[in-house]
Known about the structure:
alpha+beta, 4-stranded antiparallel β-sheet, 9 helices
Amino acid sequence: MQLIESQAIREVVISSNWAAINNGTCTLTDLGLRHNGNGLVWFNSGISVHEADSDIGLTGQDKQSYDYHSGLCTANGLKSNDYYEFVQPKDIDSYTLNIICKVSQQFTERKEGSPLATCALLIDQQARKKAIDNWTLYRHPEHGDKYTILNKYYYRALMKIYHAKGWQAEPLGYIGSLIRNDAEFSQLLKLLVYIKVRTRKITGKLNDFWIYRFKDKTLKEASTQKKVLKIII
């Protein structure tokens, strides 16, 4: 596919016209895109196509995330033409957060009406441990580093298309273990710049919330921010 033609088709697909994908003209991978379970993102960076005009690669928090998971999974690095148990480290965080958000209540203000500085997640623990059951990873039959995850309730039609094109359906083993394991899940949320806070001020009931903090905070500042949130939340 020529570059100019590819760019034109990509713009059409980004605008929500999936005709070129549905009729087999090309795949999302051909266009330098993938679906992260929540929407279209750039293939390498994982950034939403609506937030960046091109694939800018890994920087800042995304690079830190890649390094973190690479360290945990050193024996399972991606290699051409191999079968992989899970996805590339750079995708784990965004996939996990999208899955969790589907089973969480999200709040942007306190019970008395005043806005929160960012947002808060109230995560049902039983739903969290079952959340992964509704998701499947589809991997390209020839290129193992090309894949996407889809929810069977939200993207049933799209799953049929991938199946028809021969993409392999796989369980999300590694991501599932992160979400189900309490300690690993807490560590991952902290990596995703969330801080756990116990408060009554959001719903009127005493609950554990995960409060999002800004990405430009350092780890030292995060510790300070945690203390502040307990006061102002």
